[in-house]
């Protein structure tokens, strides 16, 4: 999901686990596709190695594919062609577009329980999102919400750091502006770093966070007009535009510029995803983090999850299917390493552990998992989909001050209604 998340082509990676792994002739090969690269890819490989070392009966062989549309296209083609991997990672928000088309198999909760994992091990919102028509089609590894990071030194100098070393509570748009402006006085540049140019995902994540903070719903039912709260949407766009004043934050920056600015100490706060935490750790700045403040009454945060799915097998190998369950359970139980990368593990025993409680600043934003909001369900929505591109096409000029919020929002809804009138192509 982060700035290092793109790969060209595909890469098959053999097991790197060393002496604990059996020879290839003694173990079944479990094919596992995922879209994790950079630091996330290294962490995932470490969890794969650990699982291989623990399970002499199988060896997980991962294939890493490019994040975004190329990955989902190749996965759907492999499933439709009868040659999918035994296991794959998808963004949870994309599952709804695949399961109804028969490209994914349902999870057997009894078999999952045999491996020590049950519904009780997941936060309610994550578990609810894993279901389609009452059937579980994904098992989340994490939630990765849009959050706020802040520089504790700048906050302290600005007088907005509490005695607990956390940013003072911020509960309204006016108060957020005040905090940002106090930080801007310290940096001399900006109070907040937020980049969006050419990046529909960045625009959508912030918009949807504030939209849901109003308690507004967005329902996208196939064959029906989109159900949206136009007044709330326009108000959210107006508020975001008001922040882009070249004082609170730049009027026309991209995400890479925002990350560099915050890492360099030229702003006090950053709006971005948890996946950028390793970058900030490497920058060695005094770092705090929290869910994005509740400015409009209802705690809410945009988020997605990396989730395990079972691509449909035309000729199911029961032994490999059981291996898949064992591997997923082992990764969930060993996902503290995933927390170190910034993600919030979905497996609650990790979150409730003393070890996680001492992990900063991750433990300070872990509560975001209780207020997460996935994309509204539709075959065309979700991370890396055209949905966010359509939002950018309609809204970027609003952010830039070239179009009125009403114009941008109505254009986006018109596009949604065109898509809702069409059947799922999967």
What is the structural class?
A: alpha+beta
Main beta sheet: 7 strands, mixed
Q: Report the C-alpha radius of gyration, rounded.
A: 22 Å
Work out the helicity level: 25-40%
Helix count equals 17
Low-confidence stretches: 1-24
Mean pLDDT: 92
Beta-strand fraction estimate: 15-25%
Pfam family, one: SBP_bac_8
Protein name: Extracellular solute-binding protein
Topology:
Elements: E1 10-12, E2 28-34, H1 38-54, E3 58-65, H2 69-80, E4 87-91, E5 104-105, H3 109-114, H4 124-129, E6 131-132, E7 135-136, E8 139-140, E9 142-151, H5 152-157, H6 173-187, E10 192-193, H7 200-213, H8 230-243, H9 255-263, E11 269-273, H10 277-283, E12 287-291, E13 301-304, E14 306-311, H11 318-333, H12 336-340, E15 344-345, H13 348-351, H14 354-357, H15 362-365, E16 372-373, H16 386-399, H17 405-420
Helix pairs in contact: 7-8, 7-16, 8-17, 16-17
Structure description:
Helices cover 40% and strands 16% of the residues. It is built from 17 helices and 16 strands. The chain has helices spanning 38-54, 69-80, 109-114, 124-129, 152-157, 173-187, 200-213, 230-243, 255-263, 277-283, 318-333, 336-340, 348-351, 354-357, 362-365, 386-399, 405-420, and strands at 10-12, 28-34, 58-65, 87-91, 104-105, 131-132, 135-136, 139-140, 142-151, 192-193, 269-273, 287-291, 301-304, 306-311, 344-345, 372-373. It is globular, with a radius of gyration of 22 Å.
């Amino acid at each position: 999901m982060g700035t290092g998340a793109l790969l060209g082509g595909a890469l098959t990676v053999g097991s790197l686990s060393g002496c604990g792994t059996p020879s290839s002739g003694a173990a079944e090969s479990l094919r596992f596709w995922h879209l994790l690269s950079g630091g996330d890819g290294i962490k995932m490989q470490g969890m794969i190695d650990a699982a291989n070392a623990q399970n002499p009966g199988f060896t997980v062989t991962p294939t890493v594919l490019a994040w975004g549309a190329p990955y989902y296209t190749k996965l759907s083609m492999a499933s439709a062609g009868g040659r999918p991997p035994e296991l794959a990672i998808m963004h949870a928000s994309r599952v709804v577009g695949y399961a109804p088309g028969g490209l994914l198999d349902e999870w057997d909760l009894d078999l999952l329980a045999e491996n020590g994992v049950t519904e009780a091990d997941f936060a309610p919102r994550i578990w609810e999102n894993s279901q389609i028509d009452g059937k579980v089609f994904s098992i989340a590894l994490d939630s990765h919400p849009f959050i706020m990071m802040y520089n504790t030194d700048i906050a302290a100098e600005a007088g907005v750091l509490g005695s607990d070393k956390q940013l003072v509570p911020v509960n309204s748009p006016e108060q957020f502006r005040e905090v940002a402006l106090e930080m801007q006085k310290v940096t001399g540049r900006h109070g907040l770093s937020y980049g969006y140019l050419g990046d529909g995902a960045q625009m959508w994540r912030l918009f949807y966070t504030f939209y849901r903070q109003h308690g507004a719903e967005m329902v996208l039912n196939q064959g029906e007009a989109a159900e949206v709260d136009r007044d709330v949407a326009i108000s959210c766009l107006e508020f975001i535009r008001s922040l882009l004043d070249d004082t609170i934050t730049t009027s026309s920056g991209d995400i890479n510029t925002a990350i560099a600015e915050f890492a360099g100490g030229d702003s006090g706060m950053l709006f971005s995803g948890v996946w950028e935490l390793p970058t900030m750790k490497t920058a060695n700045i005094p770092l705090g983090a929290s869910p994005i403040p509740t400015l409009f009454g209802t705690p809410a945060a945009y988020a997605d999850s990396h989730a395990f799915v079972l691509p449909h097998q035309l000729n199911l190998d029961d032994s490999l299917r059981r291996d898949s369950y064992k591997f997923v359970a082992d990764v969930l139980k060993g996902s503290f390493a995933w927390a170190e990368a910034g993600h919030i593990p979905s497996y609650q025993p990790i979150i409730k552990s003393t070890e996680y409680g001492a992990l900063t600043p991750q433990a300070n934003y872990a509560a975001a998992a209780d207020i997460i909001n996935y994309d509204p369900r539709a075959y065309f929505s979700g991370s890396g989909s055209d949905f966010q591109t359509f939002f950018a096409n309609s809204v970027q000029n609003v952010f830039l001050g070239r179009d009125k919020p009403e114009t941008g929002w109505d254009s986006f809804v018109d596009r949604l209604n065109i898509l809702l009138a069409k059947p799922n192509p999967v």
